[in-house]
Amino acid sequence: MVNANSPIPNSGYVPILKGKMAELGAIETCDSALLVPLVEVTAPETAPKQLAKSWERISDVIWIHSLNFSDADEHDFAAQVLNMFSQLRASMLAIPVITVSEVSRVRLSGRGC
Q: How far apart, in whole angstroms, are the C-alpha atoms of residue 49 and residue 60?
C-alpha cells in the first residue's frame, strides 16, 4: 500500500490506465502493496461509480487525470471534475493529476499558484 503524502518505494509501480472497464478490471484484482494506478478519466460524470467498483481500497492512493476530450467549456468541465472528486473522496484517496499545460492555464486564469 502506498500512503498519501509518502514517496513510492523503489520497487513501486505506476500503471497508466484508460478509464475503461477492461483496464479498471485489471486493478480490481491486483495486489496494491506497491502499486499506485494513474487513471485517465474522460467522463467525470460516470467515473465515480466505475472507480468505486474497481478500487475498493479506501486507504490506498489512486491518481486521477481528468481529460476534457469532449471539449466542454472550461468552467463547466472544472465543475464536473470538482463534483467527481467530491464523490471519489468519500470512498478512496483520489489524488488529482494535472499536466504542465494545465498548470499554465490555471495560472493564466488567476486560479491556483
A: 17
Cell 491486483 belongs to residue: 30
- The residues, ordered by sequence, that sit 6+ positions from 11 with a Cβ below 8 Å of its Cβ are 34
Residue 85's nearest CA partner among 95, 74, 98 is: 95
Q: Which of 29, 31, 33 is nearest to 3 (CA)?
A: 33
Query: What are the E-state strand segments in the chain?
Result: 16-18, 38-41, 61-66, 93-96
Residue located via cell numbers 470538482: 82
Q: Is the pTM of this model over 0.70?
A: yes
Q: Which amino acid is at 53?
A: K
Instruction: Determine contact, residues 60/92, Cβ cutoff 8 Å.
Output: yes
Please name the residues in contact with 7: beta carbons below 8 A apart, sequence gap of 6 or more.
none
Instruction: Read off the amino acid at residue 81.
Output: V
Over residues 75-102, the pLDDT tens digits come to: 888 899 999 999 999 889 999 998 766 5
